Amino acid sequence: MSPDAEGGGRNVEGEAPVIEETVETDEATVTGDAELERTLGLSGGLAIGIGTMIGAGIFVFPGLAAGEAGPAAAGSFAIGAVVALLVALPTSELATAMPKSGGGYYFISRGLGTLAGTVVGLSLWFGLVFATAFYLVGFGYYAVDTLAEVGVAVGDGLAVPIALLFGAGFTALNVTGTENAAKLQNGVVALLLSILSVFLLYGALDALGVVGAPSAPERFMPFGPVPVLTTAALVFTSYLGFAQVATVAGEMKRPGRNLPLAMVGSVVIVGVMYVLTVFVATSAIPSGELAALGETAMVDVGRHYLGGAGALAIVFGGLLATMSSANASILSTSRAIYAVSRDAILPRWASRINLKYGTPHVALGLAGGPVLVLVGTGEVEVLAEVASFLHLVLYGLMCVALIALRRDEPEWYDPDFRVPGYPVVPVLGALSSFALILFMQRLSQVVGLAVMLAAAGWYFYYARGVSLRGAL
Amino acid sequence: MTRVLVPLAILAGESVSPGLIDLLGTVDVTVLGYHVVPEQTPPDQARLQYEDRANEALDDVTEEFAAAGGAAERRLVFTHDREQSVERIADELDADAVAVRGATGPVERLLVPLTGAVAADRVTEFVVTLVGDRDVDVTLFVATDAEDEAGETALDDAAASLREAGIDVETSRATGPPFESLVDAAAGHDAVVMGERAPSLRSFLFGDEAERVAAETVGPVLVVRRGEEAAAPERDPDADAA
Known about the structure:
Chain A is mainly α and 472 residues long. Chain A has helices at 42-59, 61-69, 73-97, 104-112, 114-149, 159-176, 181-207, 226-235, 242-247, 255-284, 287-293, 297-342, 361-377, 380-407, 424-438, 442-463, and strands at residues 23-24, 28-30, 35-37.
């Protein structure tokens, strides 16, 4: 029996999923008549993971998180990292078994069937849209602060218009720009990591009293343990990058080795940086004041340690980081849309390629358009939480899909990387993903649930006839 | 059997000149149709949309090569990185040479430069197979900036083995910068056959020099790949093509 014997069916427009047998090698995917070159190396994969994650965690959240959990916000970030790792390991196994474009959506539709696949695929689209909007609003605040730092005070009112302008700009650039966006991304991430390392090293030495004046001690958990968990739910947005690595799994060289390394590696690297950042920030400035400083509190932390130069380095880093997060997310969104459209869950025209530029202009528009609408709301916390909600559902279901596949291993299921500690790790990953959802604000839960219900409704209207389970 | 890889930007409407097709009639040919997509586009997405069109064009070219004599095969690749794809497929096929396209009519004279550290044996062997029993003259060429005994010897050895195979050979020496001398010498020749130089096919095929040779001489260039034994130390398999 060939592995694609099970897939098929048609959607309401009569389109069938494109399912064919392929041979995956370390360097290419070989289909019947053509080869698809794998061109992304480990560093490219890490840049996508780290580049997506680092913007939010370091440059937007420390102020907000410290306000809610006090210095224990560092613990919230650590909890987030552990949950992310519990999911990153099963995701790695799935990705090496199915190194295809589409990432989480692909694994779930093949492991759990079309309904779950549709809900996750469309939720992933909107989850990325919410995340991108959140990064862009953060970018807007940093742009305002950068202007203030160089002496042009425009006020926070301009943050959202700037975010809108750049959101539209990124989308247009991705449609028309055919130069190496990925190389630029690598450079931005490398530059960012160097700025941060210097800053964190100095800050940590200072906070520990090695250099500078000893800082005032503060109670670690001024509000008790519960806010630490709710804050973990909020800041989990900072970890929504590792699974984006899986959306480019089809283009990764040596996927069996590079996918797990890129996913787990990027979570570990950013997790350490986040915890250090919050530690350094809360040592410099009492958490109450940090909260009042809001999205760009890190700028004042930079000023505290290194004066005007420190502040400037941080605003510059913030600009770079939020920009790279937003840009990487827009790219992942368009790949997510392509993956569902290829499977006839969205109309085929959604994956059309622009004749002039060779770019997926429809999918990029479907990513960029809704982003701008959401940016208009300017609601940083809700945007972040809804993004987290939708991603957490995806993460939980990926763990479930792994368990489902392992319990009744199909013939085609042959991952290069097997999750250590099975079944404990995926079970914990699923439970903790779903548990974090419970700690979110009511509004975010309602919006997230509404998106999922709408996706399920779409399935029953449009894609009911499509069957994807086990269809490689 | 001797095999030449002919990369073509198949969807950009690139085609192969009749002169090059004839010239390659004595060897096996693999036509590599490639389409480069920007980073924003998954290669698979481009395939979904363009595969049929690319296959049609590729079949036509492949048939032309088959009609000229040698066995002709085809590969189709969607990629973000042209060099990586060409190099991978050349390795997989263990191709003896890679063709850089150029316009030419019937080929009557080949220029074969042996300047620098090239595997002269492989180049001459390839030229012998390529010429076969056809009436194609060869000019062996070396550019030296001073007395270069090694270069002289290589030139004479190569000339001797080509004559042995019944090929009409002239030798030509120039003093001066290797590249400019080569371009000057190319006048009056229909195609260039040259050895791949260290460190890799990539730097030669895609560096300034290849572009300039192809542009200046207008005609096609066949780059004879370095053999296994002559190749640079094993590349690190983990190395990323940034």
